[in-house]
Every structure is written in structure tokens, then in C-alpha cells.
Write a structure and sequence with these properties.
Helix content: 25-40%
Order of helices and strands: EHHEEHEHHHEEEEEHHHEEEEEE
Shape: globular
Radius of gyration: 18 Å
Number of strands: 15
Largest sheet: 11 strands, mixed
Length: 323
Amino acid sequence: MTDMLPVVVVHGGAGHIPKERSERSTEGVCSAARAGYIILQGGGSSMDAVVGAVTELENNPNFNAGCGSVLNVKGDVEMDAIVMDGKSLGSGAVSAVRNIANPIQLARLVMDKTSHVCLTAEGAGQFARSMGVPEVPQESLITEYSRMRWKKNLEPEANPVEFQMGKMGTVGAVAVDSEGNVACATSTGGILNKMEGRVGDTPCVGCGGYADNSSGAVSTTGHGEAIMKVILARLILFHMEQGQSVEAASDLGLAYMKSRVDGLGGVVTVDPQGHWAARFSSGQMAWAAAQKDTLHYGLYTGEHFTQSIDETDTKHNSHIPMF
């Protein structure tokens, strides 16, 4: 089965993606999958690959992570991130961090350099400074688009639930390296106009992500409160431990979340052999996967395009029906 390795799969968030932004979202996840795959091809670990891929997405203003993060009710950026290593079950996470360009890299430092799993808010900021991570001005993380949506949601007639269900664009990645080690990484700016200090599923082990070499790795996106209630990432791996395929396990987890707590979301999933899936119950989820020098990607349910990993134009491709 090792001929299926290595593989990296990324998502750019589940929800509704406005038409004018959908092409940029697709290009962004394809670019991130390529970046992760190049790391794997160069002998990098699955952890190197997922952090590399998610860093690309954090640096892309079209996603709700890093420099495209949505704003809380006060108009500030508060970001969450997690990494997990399937070989050791080592994990690192940060929550409610500000003034950090790449929270995913800080989460990895928590895993590598401390005995803790999660650092929050000012404590995470102090740790970042002690590690020499440069602080960036908050303005550099706020896009005009984020500020426009924040202002719209403050209007008296605004429907916050509708806006929050609009685009819940957490980003994430899972990977298997050539040695069969799995890893996951997830990063987010959270939900639009959230209360100050609100922390969602992303930095919670088993919710925003989980990785275990004995079963696989999952990165989730969607409505954080719903994901936390069903521990979605770990639930999917439980189904895989019962013998379900990556697709079936992903669908079972998402269906349970929908029926039990009326939550929508999406996941990218891999098993240690290199089987992978990108599944979602929301209207859209930008996703991409790189395996065997082929790039796979899609945005709508049932959509699956492929092209050579070396091509850069996502307009010329072949289409594989996906059900």
C-alpha cells in the first residue's frame, strides 16, 4: 500500500462561499496542497507538511485564519489553532491569540517546546515572545472584507445566526508521510461577531482535529459549538476503528452531528495507508488533495477535479464524478 504515500489533504472552510470569492478559495487550497506535497516529497514529515500547508492558508486573505480572520463583537481578531502528531499523540494548541501572523506555527511550538497542550490569550502571547515569534500589528490581520462583514452584523436588523452560518471558513490539513505517520493541523479566526474570549472547536483535541497512527487523522470545519458537542474528529476515527472507510466514517460523523445537534460542517480525513476523503454537509467546502503527483480539488458536493501537480491553472482539468 505504500505506493499511495505520501498524501496531503487540505480544506478552506465549510459554509457558503460567495461566487466572487469561490475561485480564489479553490486556488488557495490547491496552492496549499501543493506546498504540503512538496514538503513530503522532499522527505519532510507529515507534521511539517500540515503546518506548511496551513501556514499558506493563514497567509492568504481569502480564508478565515491568520490575515483573513473574522472579527469578534469588539472588532478585534482572536485566533485559535491546533496540531497533532499521530506517532506520539503529541499535540499543541493556542486559543484567543492576537498579533500573531501564523497561529499554527505557535501551536507547533507549544507541542515541541512545552509540557502543555494548550495556551490561551495573553499566556500564549507571552510564550510567543519568549520563543522569538514576532508580533504583528492587528491591522495587518484585518481585511476590508472582514471589517465590512463585522459592520453589517452590528446593524440592528442584522441576523447574526445567518451571518455566522454564512462562511465559517476554518482552514486545515491532514497528511501521511512516506513512513506512514499521520498528522493534522487546523487554524481559524472563529465565527463572525463572536463574544470576546469565545473559543470554538479548533484548539480542542478530538474536536478541531485528531491524529493517531493506529487509525488516521481528521481536520474539521463548521459550526464550532456543534463540533465540540459530538467531538467530531475523534468520532470519525472511532468509526474507522470499527472498520469503516475514510469516506463512510466521515459521512457517519457529519450525519450524526446534523441529526443530533443540527450542526453543519466538513472534514478532511486520511488513514495511515493513504486513503483520503474530503466530505461536508454544508453547501460548499473548498478542498484539495495531492497524491501520486496528481492534484485533486473541488468546492461543491459531488465535484472532483484532477490535474497534474505541476499545472498551475485550475481552469483546465478533468472531472471525476463524486457521490
